[in-house]
Amino acid sequence: MIRLTVLLLVTLLTISLSKRPTQLASSIHTTSNEKGISTGADRTQQYVPYLKGKRIGLVANQSSMIGKKSSVDSLLSLGINIVKVFGPEHGFRGNASNGAAVSNEKDAKTGIPIISLYGKNEKPTPAQLADIDLMVFDIQDVGCRYYTNINTLEYVMEACSETNKELLILDRPNPNAYVVDGPVMTDDKFKSVIGIHYIPMTHGMTIGEFAQYLNGEGYLKKPCNIKIIKVANYTHDMAYVLPIQPSPNLNSQQAVLLFPSLCMFEGTAINEGRGTYMPFTILGAPALKGKYSFSYKPVSIPGMSERPNHRDSVCYGLDLRNYDINKLRKSRQLNLSWVIELYKAYPDKANFFAPGRSKDVSAFDLRIGTDQLRKQIIAGVSEADIRKSWEPGLQKFKGIRAKYLLYPD
């Protein structure tokens, strides 16, 4: 009888980990969006007349929606001439795995050319912009340095600046705008495809605000001519449930809100849920067997994670699917305790932090933007003292950030 009960529990756990969520807004720990929030894209009366008669290049992916229709379909139905669509990491349809190069193609439905901006062609070329009068940027971001949409934004702004093209930004809320936290990247040796800006791990800005920051802080040789359609009735501290997943592995609201704290584990021996349908809500590794009772097995999932860490091995660790996300909102901080806890629990500490581009810069360092945190964790520095070491950089950044805000905190 005991064996039968255990078998039943294991079966139920396996089903719960493999079940694909159907809608982002219906997943655990969701809250209704604040009444009256309207994205820049939804405010068509503010910009559609401006697009009329122009040849439009649209930077978009599956999160680019006007109401319940894609921005491409909606704008075409309104008589807008879209001549090209540019897609960021994960592709125009958002179905490419993290880090996967995406090829250029034609949209099967409309025949519009789709140019990939992830891989060899990170920045639109002058030739690709030659037949475009106005570029439009409409992509949902989640407010982290290591989420590559802000890299794409900079490259698009740079290309527009160099070719004297205007960029219209359809702004969207940042679901993690309430938190500005983590060490500020200050050294070029930590720059990579997952971090090219001298900002904290979470910056607390919308795409429109970040564009103003890039212009104002000299990231471009020549400022880009930008026009921003603001989000209506929005402040940074408002809870915002994304209506559609922004990328394949952020497929629940819980994952979106835990992502800033859990993505750092990608630079460690810990699997962060990739290879399951619950990414960025669970943490584990085979070496933690006996330390934690919760377990799961990452597998290859095409379009999400083909080669997850510890593929086909049972991992043991933390189940954060029911973690009260309001704790993070109340603290306005990243959760640092989980990485400290799992480092202490990990038996092979010499191999906890994954190697990176050199012996001095680990994969973990590239996500954090400094090697200081890794060294502090190894040395057993307390969380309180680690946070104190971040404060000078954070306070300086917050003062700079304040100049570019379009919405109150």
TrEMBL record:
What's the domain of life for this entry? Bacteria
State the coiled-coil residue ranges: none
Q: Name one Pfam family in it.
A: NamZ_C
Stored InterPro entries: NamZ (IPR008302), NamZ_C (IPR048503), NamZ_N (IPR048502)
**Domain called Peptidoglycan beta-N-acetylmuramidase NamZ C-terminal: residue spans:** 257-407
Residues annotated as domain Peptidoglycan beta-N-acetylmuramidase NamZ N-terminal: 56-253
The name under which this protein is listed is DUF1343 domain-containing protein
